[in-house]
What does this fold into?
Amino acid sequence: MATRRQRTERRADALSKDRIVDAAIEILDAEGERGLTFRALTSRLATGTGAIYWHVANKEELLTEATTRVVDLVMMRVPDSRTPAAGARAITLIALGVFDAIDEHPWVGAHLPRVPWQPGMVSLFEGIGGRLDALGVPGPAQFNAASALVSYILGVAGQNAANARRHAPGTSRSGVLGEAAARWEELDPAAYPFLRKVAPQLRDHDDREQFLAGVDLILAGLTAGQ
Amino acid sequence: MATRRQRTERRADALSKDRIVDAAIEILDAEGERGLTFRALTSRLATGTGAIYWHVANKEELLTEATTRVVDLVMMRVPDSRTPAAGARAITLIALGVFDAIDEHPWVGAHLPRVPWQPGMVSLFEGIGGRLDALGVPGPAQFNAASALVSYILGVAGQNAANARRHAPGTSRSGVLGEAAARWEELDPAAYPFLRKVAPQLRDHDDREQFLAGVDLILAGLTAGQ
DNA sequence: ACCTGAACACCGTTCAAGT
DNA sequence: ACCTGAACACCGTTCAAGT
It folds into this structure.
């Protein structure tokens, strides 16, 4: 009984996978992906590298665990419903939830596309695929439909992560967009007619709205035949 | 005159940005992204690291140049046409061209989403956006439409790159998919009904066809209102 | 102008040794 | 069983020195 007690009631500061992942997320959010090193982790947790490697296989597992937590938090908040309208709404909620989560934790956007069938990715696939019945997408088309939606979400996720990595947290978004738009306006009109035409839209667009427009586009394609 | 001659007709083995990028692409194709180090480059080019840094700012520029070459090669092969059918076909050709290029050079799929408005990305955006007029997509909707298509392509690109990075070039694709499908079939049916249902489709699906189905889905969404 | 290569400031990971 | 921390085998990048 005494040993049992000792094993279950560990000291509050005892090392565990959970505490390691906690610390990793704090570092990732504060310093970005580049800041997460085993040296930073050991100093924050006041241990040696070997202690961390006892609980976690390697850095990839650490990032995967952290990513899983963030994605699962998003999925937990989505209601499941069975009418077509509710199906579309649930998918939009998942998509926006992932978008916002990546806005808050850009490293998730970088890691999610990197490890093929990691748990967070599996949850996402199930979460979206499971709503396609309600949407009225026929069974055989559901696999491709879910895959298209997830690929689109991961594509935006990766780009947003890349944007966040480049610009310091304080950087003005409109400034960055304005510079990019100005570059587009100076391109050779013969070679880049489209970019010149849409440069003003680049300057004024909202990433979140544009992301949502893409989701709506795919949903429209899915229900186009009905 | 003699000096001019000397400057333009350099020795065949003289270092230049082009030759460095050539060597980088060879290494990337043969050894993957992990194989491209400045040590590998210097030994292949028989110089010192400083020589490479004289021509190229850093590793990211090297990867961006290499990526640009691959993407531009794809874009060069797409005919431009003005009828709706030809517009859709051109977009499909670009999408498949990028897909196949990434199949051959997986590192492109990893780098393309990583550097926001790199030249290869700009070409891709222009190539797709420039065909939306022919497709009949109204002007104001074109920016979001191009963005959705490109994001989807980058999403698939990133995942394919991740897959290639994990499995040695010789690995049997059906074996990998079979194992993944088997894992899905063992999931809790209450928690993962969708994945269990589509597991057989995962086992048999073709990545390229699935990618194309996604492109068609977005194109269908774009022309749904017409 | 262009190249050399040693040196710097890092990494992730391993492992013998401790408790 | 769990932890320590030095050591290993790498990296990208810089820079004084050469031609």
